[in-house]
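Ticket reopened. Same input as before:
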Amino acid sequence: MLEVKGLHAKVEGKDILKGLDLSVRAGEVHAIMGPNGSGKSTLSHVIAGREGYEITAGSVQFDGRDLLALPPETRACEGIFLGFQYPVEIPGVSNLTLLKAALNARRKYRGQPEIDPGDFLAWVRDRARLVKIDPKMLSRGVNEGFSGGEKKRNEILQMLVLEPRLMILDETDSGLDIDALKIVADGINALRSPERATLLVTHYQRLLDYVQPDYVHVLARGRIVRSGGPELARELEQKGYGWLEAA
Amino acid sequence: MASQPQDIHELMRRREYSAGFVTAIESDTVPPGLSEDVIRMISARKQEPEWLLEFRLKAYRRWLRMEEPKWAHVHHPPIDYQAISYYSQPKSFKDGPKSLDEVDPKLLETYKKLGIPLKEQEMLAGVAVDVVFDSVSVATTFKKKLAEAGVIFCPISEAVREHPELVRKYLGSVVPFGDNFYAALNSAVFTDGSFVYIPKGVRCPMELSTYFRINERNTGQFERTLIVAEEGSQVSYLEGCTAPQRDENQLHAAVVELVALDDAQIKYSTVQNWYPGDEQGRGGIYNFVTKRGDCRGKRSKISWTQVETGSAITWKYPSCILRGDDSVGEFYSVALTHHRQQADTGTKMIHVGRNTRSTIVSKGISAGEGQQSYRGLVRVLESADNARNYTQCDSLLIGDRCGAHTFPYTEVRNPSARLEHEATTSKIAEDQLYYCRARGIGEEEAVSMIVNGFCKEVFKELPMEFAVEAGKLLAVSLEGAVG
Ligand SMILES: Nc1ncnc2c1ncn2[C@@H]1O[C@H](COP(=O)(O)OP(=O)(O)O)[C@@H](O)[C@H]1O
Ligand SMILES: [Mg+2]
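Engineering reply: fixed in the latest deploy. New output:
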């Protein structure tokens, strides 16, 4: 589904990704771990399509299509979803407005008519219940005045509403208490299916206790320096990254 | 901009009639230029009473001694006031295009984007419309309802004839004839506009002008609007139209006067979209307006809400004089400048009575090379114990060639006053746009969504139907602002 080959990316003239390879098939969950500043968010944004990254070598393919040639909105309509490490506030634009626009953009992309407003509301309320988001919050501005935990749950809500095929979650678990962490994990698991794939960027084993990964990768100095199964994450939990970075 | 409550039949008749007249009076059509003779002629043509002619002449004499305001943060080539024709017969539909096929396709495209019904498009574009027109019955029904409530809503020239005592009492009582350069000019030469009178204790049974909006084809260059709300009455008046209006008259200098007596409330909403000119700024309208509301009575309230996206140059400060004790003034504004548009707008809140309160919320959006200034004055007189003002001015910049300037002025002569001021300037953040796009929303839709969010506090003050239109209008006006 996702094929990253020999990816080199620069930000403001600085090399961040230096030859990254990653292959994700439908149905799989991959965890990406690694020290701060190693390029995890950069990788996520390059896949999602943020501007400002210079790709100097390599390729990213999604279902065999060259992803790097597409604007971010097209990538999203193709089924890529990025849960932001730092969700953005948009004052005055309600969550419902954003969700409806996003949902209808997808439908338009697929040549479907706009969703019926009643069906839309019912669908969003149903999804909100899964992540324990108060329906009242839906009419508030996007992430406007939300707590850190609320913002993260809101990312999961958007994901549940939009039902992407590739879910990239950039440290969605950071800063969450245990209850919120469970909610987030439930949200991710609710979408797990043989047609979908997940990329979990995380620092902690505890999320992986709830969302079992098939593969664990360690990203350091702009490359995947080690890949393994779930046991690699537990090893990292004990030993830290030092032994790998030196390698 | 003003609306007239007569039904389409009447409107057509009047136009046809005057068109029939044209040849007969053509010989004495007023030539370009302004003089006392021209003013006498206008007044005679409209069969006005002597006092009104005097009013015009006094204004004219004052105007001669005045200079155009220079302090506005706008630039335009000098206007030749002697090159303007100050009176012309209303145009006949016969002069207009015969069908929409003859209308500028670009204009039609905009109408379509705004979702304006076909019949209405024809009216706006000046097509000779079939007399069998849906709104005729609607307009007549509403006219009847207004009459039952005792509400007067008519062209001001008709009011001069039918209700001279009311017009005489209030005309110029809020904006005196010598108030400023443009107001003086308007007072000397105004030819049309609306008059509204709401009797004591009456709540106007409908929002005025929504249904008559489509009649406003022949808007005057020097409009005069007067709204009087008697004790305990209420009215909501809507002015303007979201469709871009073209007009061969480049200069527009309107005067709007509002009078609210004890416990009366006037809500005046404007959605204004004069032709702003092309990307080089050619052909746009200069809109120099004096709008003022007088909270003359105790506990009265006047609320201005405006959404401005049009004109090449806008110069406009809807103001409130809070004379009555416990009176309230509000100003909610969204102004958008794109391409080479210039806007110098703001408000004045003059606190005279005790416990008077005012709220100012101004949202400015600049894109392209648009330049925008907010100029607000809050004046608290000695007599105004416990005056309160809250001012919020937010500017949003799209791109880096546009500008926003804020000039808040305060003059406080009573120590018990409490004034709060908040101002922000922000750019549409890259990360907001990216966030929306990462959810699948295209760039233009994302910009318009973010801008609409920015304007929300103002839009919620607009009547529902207008708010929806205003949202669409911003989206269309901002097309091409990014990327
Ligand atoms: N916009 C930017 N400008 C300059 N440097 C950046 C920018 N974004 C990221 N970086 C740098 O790129 C490196 C990788 O950052 P990031 O991908 O956020 O790491 P991680 O998510 O693994 O913590 C860091 O050294 C960071 O400082
Ligand atoms: Mg990161």
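Chain B has 13 helices and 18 strands. Chain B has one domain: 21-427. Please confirm and we'll close it.
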